[in-house]
Structure formats: structure tokens, C-alpha cells
Amino acid sequence: EDACANVKCRQGEWCNQGRCECLDTCASDWNNFDRKLCVDGNTYRHECDLWRNQCYCRTGDSRCGGETFNNHRANDDAVIKYFDECRDLTEMCDWEQQEDSFPIRLGIWFQELLRQKWSSGSDHPDDESLLRPMDSKARAATSKLMSPSTMDRAESGVISYWFCELDRRNKGSLDERDLSLLYQVLLPSNACLETFMNRCASSGSISFDQWHNCFDVPR
């Protein structure tokens, strides 16, 4: 009988005689992926290295935060900031030039993405988009947001909708973990996104009111 048949190990682990152990190395297939990622200002070659390091740190393995991982001690709360080498995004962002137009452009992007999602009516649970699966009930509830707009910026309802979508833990505020998927989609190519979000935040999180103020739309 296979001792591992009913054992489910975490990412970065493998089953050895019925017990989950940290991977010593990543499968060679990972070397075929050009998929670097930035975590806490440290660049990893791929997700497997991050998972492996998290396992080492979680289990007290001496390999935790070794040279392979740029001396970064990765706990289970480590968030992938974006998929690329870590860069100084502040140097890539000309905020003085972008300040007036950035919230408008981001809001319009939010509106168009919601419109595309609404039109497709995707309700597949494996849909890995920024917006959660939208069944017929959700589409009906958001239909009023789909009416043609004459405004030069996103409607207030759209901005509210996105806050609720990003607040998947229902805390009433957004922190770095809540924004992680948005960052992963838009960074580093939209380098001013982080500056924009940091200016919205107070004490490391963004409230519902602050979110609307950042986009200069009423609640």
C-alpha cells in the first residue's frame, strides 16, 4: 500500500513514506520558465524556489534564507509583489507628470475590465482573473453599472465595486495582501501604481472612504 496515497503536501514539499518533507531541489522543468518574481524586495528565479524557502523557514531547516534565496527568510505570509526582477519602482515613476491622470486612467481600466467580465458572464470557479466568477445573479446586480457613461472617469459605483472585489477577507480596508493580485497584473509596467496606493493609504491600509477619495469620486 502506498503510504503517500492519501497525503496532501503543501507547495514546496513532497511526500516521503507518508510524511511531507521540504523539496531539496526544484524539478528541472522549472528552469525552462522565464518567470522571476519579486518578494519583499528579493528576486526569486521562480515560484518553486519561494515555496521551497518557505518550507525551510517554516520547519526550522538550516537552509532557510540561504544564499540561493539571497538571504531572504520567507514566511508563509510572504506576498509575491510582481513577476519580474525587483526594481526601484520609485525611480521608474514620474509622479509629478502622472498624478492628475493616473487615477482617471486606472478607474477607466477598472470600468472596462468589469464590462468585459460582465459581458462574458464567466462563472467558472477556476477563472483566475482579478474579478471573481460572475454568475447570472451577480450579472443582474451589476447591470446598472454597465450603462453607457458620458463621464471622463469611472463611475462611483464601479470604484465601490472594485473595493469590495479586492477586499476578499471582508475587513473593510485594503492592505498589501489584498492588493497583491492587482500589483501582479500591473507591476512593474505601471510603476506609479504603488506610489498611488501608498498615497491613498494610512497606517498601511486603505479604507473605503480613502479609496474613493483617491479616485476623486463620491461614495
TrEMBL record:
Family annotation (InterPro entries): EF-hand-dom_pair, SPARC/Testican_Ca-bd-dom
Record Pfam families: SPARC_Ca_bdg
Domain of life: Eukaryota
Localization annotation: Secreted
This protein's UniProt keywords: Disulfide bond, Glycoprotein, Secreted, Signal
SUPFAM superfamilies: EF-hand
Residue ranges annotated for the SPARC/Testican calcium-binding domain, each copy included: 96-214
One MF annotation (Gene Ontology) recorded for this entry: calcium ion binding
Membrane-spanning intervals of the chain: none
GO cellular component, one term: extracellular space
Listed PANTHER family: BM-40, SPARC OSTEONECTIN
Protein's name according to its UniProt entry: SPARC/Testican calcium-binding domain-containing protein
